[in-house]
């Protein structure tokens, strides 16, 4: 039992999630992507990139799941990935609504346009 004490103490003093590991810095730095996505809420929907937001949504949701099945489980990274996926989903829905409204406006303008003589 005494032989295990130093190993247990070392494990307690050096957890998997500390500032000297990637398990700490990956979520900290990834919050920058979430904040950038939140900043894009102010941007008009026609200026948003479908490819970029689809990638953020997919990676956010995929990595959320992955963070919960790897060892050690990294809850901070899972949380930031969940929010990244959420921000991407909100942006994708804004883009979809913008395209839907453009189509509806074009149909309305076409109905209101006077018939052209051929």
UniProtKB/TrEMBL annotation:
Keyword Transport recorded: yes
Superkingdom: Eukaryota
Pfam families: MPC
Membrane topology: Multi-pass membrane protein
Compartment(s) where it occurs, according to its Swiss-Prot or TrEMBL record: Mitochondrion inner membrane
Function: Mediates the uptake of pyruvate into mitochondria.
Record's protein name: Mitochondrial pyruvate carrier
Organism: Ascodesmis nigricans
Lineage: Eukaryota, Fungi, Dikarya, Ascomycota, Pezizomycotina
């Amino acid at each position: 039992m005494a032989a295990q004490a130093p190993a247990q103490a070392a494990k307690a003093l050096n957890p998997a999630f500390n500032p000297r590991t990637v398990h700490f810095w990956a979520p900290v730095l990834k919050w920058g992507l979430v904040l950038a996505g939140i900043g894009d809420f102010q941007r008009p929907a026609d200026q948003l990139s479908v490819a970029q937001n689809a990638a953020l949504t997919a990676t956010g949701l995929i990595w959320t799941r992955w963070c919960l099945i790897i060892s050690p489980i990294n809850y901070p990274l899972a949380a930031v990935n969940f929010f990244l996926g959420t921000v991407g989903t909100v942006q994708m829905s804004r883009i979809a609504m913008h395209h839907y409204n453009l189509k509806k406006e074009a149909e309305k303008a076409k109905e209101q346009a006077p018939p052209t003589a051929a």
